[in-house]
């Protein structure tokens, strides 16, 4: 079975379509709730996000409003391990960008016109048309701004998607059937071992990067490579000898590291 990413704007019925696709293909659904659980499982709630209410709805919205660079770091550290499993339905969270080089992934865009989305939000939430209009446009602007800042891409770019579905012209169950049929095709039905290995190595690289940040090691002048599963090569420069001495312990504490070559030099400042 394939790995599917489904991206959507609020009011386009993307969540509904995603659930139907996951049910039809018997795949795990990685929506807001499930990805939040994964973030907590992985221990990704650091000091910058420590004040978030983990039980309340809107966890990702709260995280997003803090610092976009921290939000992106959390997304990478959650999405990459999920993708390394090679199957599932990931809803939003920049997955179409984070996984655009992952040959296993089938990227879908569920969309609808802004007037239709405003009307749906108005009816579902009992809002006035003016309030729904203002809310939809505000959320659209926030997402577009984040994508430009974090990924340097336009989230509407057709290059990011393999299939686009318009829910103004297609009911959710029809849309889910179309996506499922496409996902069952030979092109997407199997995830190659090489592609999964690449994603696993990428996931390990991100966990090592995160361990450096959590250990207050400056990573701006370090290069971390994972040439094969479990094998890590760290090179570059550190600000102090203390950081250089700590590096091996920090890297080897990351689950999945089985071999390490660590040979950074200490930055020498001119006199």
Structural topology:
Layout: E1 3-8, H1 14-25, E2 29-30, H2 32-41, H3 59-66, H4 68-83, E3 88-91, H5 95-98, E4 105-111, H6 114-125, H7 129-151, E5 163-166, H8 172-183, H9 193-214, E6 222-228, E7 231-238, H10 241-252, E8 259-262, E9 265-266
Parallel strand pairs: 1-3, 1-4, 2-3, 4-5, 7-8, 7-9
Antiparallel strand pairs: 6-7
Helix pairs in contact: 1-8, 3-4, 4-9, 6-7
The end-to-end span amounts to 60 Å
In the CATH hierarchy, what is the architecture of the largest domain at level 2? Answer: 3-Layer(aba) Sandwich
**What is the typical, i.e. mean, pLDDT?**
81
By CATH, the superfamily of the largest domain comes out as P-loop containing nucleotide triphosphate hydrolases
| Element pattern in H and E | EHEHHHEHEHHEHHEEHEE
Q: Which structural category do the helix and sheet elements fall into?
A: alpha/beta
Q: Report strand order across the widest sheet.
A: 2-3-1-4-5
How much of the sequence lies in strands comes to 15-25%
Helix content: 40-55%
> Might you state the CATH topology name of the largest domain?
Rossmann fold
Global Rg? 21 Å
Number of helices: 10
Count of individual beta strands: 9
Number of domains: 2
The CATH class of the largest domain is: Alpha Beta
Major sheet, described briefly?
5 strands, parallel
**Which consecutive residue ranges, at least 5 long each, have pLDDT under 50?**
47-57
What is the overall shape? globular
